Amino acid sequence: MPTNNTVWLNGTFDVLHSGHIKLFRYARMLAGPTGKVMVGLDTDERIRLAKGPSRPINSLFDRMFFLSSIKYIDDIVSFSTEWELETLRYMNKPKFMVIGDDYRDKKIIGAEHIEEIIFITRDDKSTSNIVNR
After folding, report:
1. Cα separation of 126 and 1, whole Å?
2. pLDDT tens digits, residue range 14-56?
3. What is the dotted CATH code of the domain comprising 6-132?
């Protein structure tokens, strides 16, 4: 049974940058010493469908390896469909979800399984900006 202080984040996390680390550190603070920080990762196929054939830069295996090396993260899972994402959120019943404020007016898959959604303002760093440079 998941702890009540599970914090959920998800994304591609294709090219890690300082904005991601700040996000994970914030999630760890929310989870507290007995909570859990879970990261959901889009599969390579899902990223290609959303962002084009040149993405992701790093494979799912590599992205999971990189994230597993970050001390703020407790668990990493991958998903390839909206149904899988919703099922993961249902099964883990996170207390919090941390997500960029650009999703404030968008549908959040599985939101009904999360106690509180926390929107954060993104800084000027983004994987897309890094890749486009």
Report:
1. 34
2. 999 988 999 999 999 999 999 999 999 999 999 999 999 999 9
3. 3.40.50.620
- What spatial distance separates the first Cα and last Cα of the chain, rounded to whole Å? 44
Tokens of 4: 């009540």
Domain boundaries, the chain: 6-132
Instruction: Look over the chain and give the mean of its residue pLDDT values, rounded to a whole number.
Output: 90
- Look at residue 123 and tell me whether its pLDDT is greater than 70: no
DSSP class of 12:
-
Nearest to 82 by CA among 119, 40, 115: 40
How is residue 59 written in tokens?
């494979």
DSSP-derived letter for residue 106 is S
What is the pLDDT, as a whole number, of residue 23? 93
Give the strands of the sheet with 116-120, arranged side by side. Answer: 75-79, 36-42, 6-11, 96-100, 116-120
